[in-house]
Design a protein that fits this description.
By secondary structure, the protein is an all-alpha fold. The protein is built from 15 helices and no strands. 84% of the residues lie in helices and 0% in strands. The mean pLDDT is 82.
């Protein structure tokens, strides 16, 4: 098997992990109905997964840093597969939560290791492309995994989704065992060194932008299926189509975001993307009577929201190019924390206010992200002017 195909196998693994995380949003109402729990309780399945992923991944990656990469990928994927089988087989909400915890622990190590392996087996000069391919697998879960999961839930038992993920995961383990070469572990990067970067205000500001941007998105996205079913009165077929369009728009948004960053810079790309993000969220409540208008706004929302992703990653890497791996790891953890917080806040909004409120509160989160970004740029500009002033000769 060529290295290109090996990287596609790693992309499939990334796709499975993304599907296990995001599919809950697409079947939230089904989970609530069959387990006799509230929508809010079902929504916390996303919070739990994201929180465990964010906090557990750095620790597990550090503890397993010296293990052969192929073995680590197989072991972590094995844990992920077992957790998905438990999610299918074990009865009750409590045990399903336990399965989600182990699913998240396995998933975090799987993604980090897959990215590492992809970079190692890629041809010289194509490492970045290999990493992008694996990341595209994760994004692809929004395009294929979530709407496919909705179709399975509508036609059969929603738990069958996790059986499908397990079967594909086992096949991926076999292919990895047969084709991926062994490679040594890496030197341990102390947690203290990883967290030292947070002492720099500009990096901390940038991570806060990530948190509020994605948190605002998560508040609305977690409950998007029940929102479209109850507020927009969508049927099952239309809902699956809407989720598919939403996923495709996320991929296009990511690509355009990267292109825009190269052409027009980070500040313009983030400001435009997040502004459209805010307008789209607010507009959802005014377009529920028109299916066409609602679908257009959904696509625009997904496009705008995900256009900020590659831009933020690029911004953080350029802030500390000598520690790019640590910066991406920190940003990944913050993104998962944002997903967890968004799902939690969205749950409070649904239970205490109304399901329509999630779009307004989500928009507020993105507004906060813009405010933090502008304060950060203003502070950076002021510091630059001050340094220039101090260097001027006295007269």
């Amino acid at each position: 098997m060529s290295n290109t195909w090996k990287i596609y196998v790693l992309a499939l693994v990334s796709f499975l992990v993304g599907t296990s995380e995001y599919v809950i949003a697409g079947i939230l109402d089904r989970i609530a109905d069959t387990m006799n729990i509230s929508l809010v309780a079902a929504g916390q399945l996303i919070s739990i997964f994201s929180l465990v992923y964010a906090l557990g991944t750095p620790l597990l990656v550090a503890l397993t840093s010296r293990i052969d990469r192929r073995k680590l990928l197989i072991y972590s994927l094995g844990l992920f597969v077992l957790a998905n089988l438990f999610a299918y087989a074990l009865p009750g909400f409590g045990l399903f939560v336990v399965a989600r915890v182990f699913m998240a622990l396995g998933a975090g190590v799987v993604v980090v290791t897959a990215l590492t392996v992809a970079a190692k087996i890629a041809s010289e000069g194509k490492q970045a492309s290999a990493i992008a391919t694996v990341v595209t697998g994760f994004t692809g879960s929004l395009i294929i995994g979530v709407p496919l999961g909705r179709l399975v839930a509508a036609s059969w038992d929603w738990k069958l989704i996790f059986v499908g993920i397990s079967v594909l995961g086992i096949l991926a383990m076999i292919v990895i065992a047969l084709t991926i070469p062994s490679s040594e572990g890496e030197a341990l990067i102390p947690l203290k060194k990883q967290l030292a970067l947070l002492k720099q205000p500009r990096i901390l500001f940038a991570l806060f932008v990530t948190f509020f941007w994605l948190g605002g998105y998560s508040i609305a996205y977690t409950y998007i299926s029940p929102y479209l079913l109850s507020v927009a009165n969508m049927n099952e077929t239309l809902l699956s189509s809407a989720l598919l369009a939403f996923g495709i728009a996320s991929l296009i948004g990511s690509k355009i975001g990267g292109y825009s960053t190269d052409r027009w810079g980070v500040k313009r790309t983030l400001l435009l993307g997040m502004s459209i993000h805010i307008v789209s969220l607010i507009s959802l409540n005014f377009s529920s009577q028109s299916t066409v208008a609602l679908l257009i706004i959904l696509v625009l929302w997904s496009f705008a929201a995900w256009s900020s992703g590659p831009t933020q990653q690029y911004k953080l890497v350029t802030m500390a190019p000598e520690s790019s791996g640590i910066m991406l790891s920190l940003n990944s953890s913050v993104m998962q924390l944002a997903m967890a917080a968004g799902a939690g806040i969205g749950g409070i909004a649904v239970s205490q206010i109304s399901i329509q409120s999630i779009t307004w509160i989500g928009a507020v989160g993105v507004v906060v992200a813009i405010v933090i970004m502008m304060i950060s740029y203003h502070a950076a500009s002021s510091n630059t002017r001050e340094r220039v002033r101090l260097k001027l000769p006295k007269h």
